[in-house]
Amino acid sequence: MVVNFKVFKKSSPNGKITLYVGKRDYVDHISAVEPIDGVLVLDDEYSRENRKIFGQVVCSFRYGREEDEVMGLNFQKELYLASEQLFPVAEKRDFTPSKLQERLVKKLGGNAIPFTFNLQPSAPASVTLQQGRDEAGEPCGVQYFVKIFAGESETDRTHRRSTVTLGIRKVQFAPSKTGAQPCTIVRKDFMLSPGELELEVTLDKQLYFHGEKIAVNCCIRNNSNKVVKKIKAMVQQGVDVVLFQNGQYRNTVASMETTEGCPIQPGSSVQKVMYLTPLLSSNKDRKGIALDGQVKKEDTNLASTTLLASPEQRDAFGIIVSYAIKVKLFLGALGGELAAELPFVLMHPKPGTKPKVIHADSQADVECFRQDTIDQDSVDCY
């Protein structure tokens, strides 16, 4: 039986260097990150001349608009997470090629060189911030690239004609174990008035998947002499740009307000369930919304919650995303309002973990990318 497996391919503009990778999404398991396995193929000319070829994994963080980069300003930082000389091959190489690499080396010939890069778990996840309609250029956020180039040293200024740059993503999936059911109770008393107003908010679970409906259970006990006139529930996305001291803000990505069951008179209680679904389709024109990183010009979704192994990792290089449910009770101009918040986790489910078996007669379905860009639509090669 012949089995097809997917391979991504990109060549340098001069055609002397070609990069093959088996995937473009690499999973952060909190304790470790999937290794970046690939194969480098050199032209005969470069191979004969023993041209030095280097490979790097670059984490690029853009925190300002590209069109505002004037008078020498630069709103982009680059962090080199891995760097290694790939050719001439070192005599002592401490890694074992994967099955995919072995199959590609056998298929591509003697100029094929397998390589592996390892990322630290503290590296940030791929996140981009949605641009406004009138904005052009690269979006703000965190992006990753595998860069292969010819040069004299790892710090040599690269020449575009002999450089391959392929965009990849560092992603996180939902954990297998979920936390306790979220629940909170807030109370408010009033000056010169007896009793208090109590709001209890409960979610049916802590972890939700993208596109899933969130049931917000609200229990209101009005033991005061005030009247609740309206109830509003919101899903708020928290964005923490850790490069800035004041780079924290929130966006409401889903909301619902109702007067059903209102006014809630003194001495009465009301219990109701409000349903919210946070979706990017409802926030297409909202500037600053955090989205999952993109590797091609295709639709994405709201950014997933950033999972950290410890709070100290908040100082890492990147953008941290969180979500919370906020419920407000409106009591009128004189009574003010009462609010309760509940954090929750919004992520993609972990895909099937069954490994693909690559047989000796397997055929590679190669997807190529144009040389002048990393994000233009790909074309299939046969």
TrEMBL record:
Keywords tagged on the record: Sensory transduction, Vision
Lineage summary: Eukaryota, Metazoa, Ecdysozoa, Arthropoda, Hexapoda
GO annotation, biological process: G protein-coupled receptor internalization; negative regulation of phospholipase C-activating phototransduction signaling pathway; photoreceptor cell maintenance; sensory perception of smell; signal transduction; visual perception
Protein name: Phosrestin-2
Stored Gene3D superfamilies: 2.60.40.640, 2.60.40.840
Organism, as annotated: Pseudolycoriella hygida
SUPFAM superfamilies (UniProt xref): E set domains
Alphabetized InterPro entries for the sequence: Arrestin (IPR000698), Arrestin-like_C (IPR014752), Arrestin-like_N (IPR011021), Arrestin_C-like (IPR011022), Arrestin_CS (IPR017864), Arrestin_N (IPR014753), Ig_E-set (IPR014756)
Keyword presence, Ribonucleoprotein: no
Keyword Amino-acid biosynthesis among record annotations: no
GO MF annotations, alphabetized: G protein-coupled receptor binding
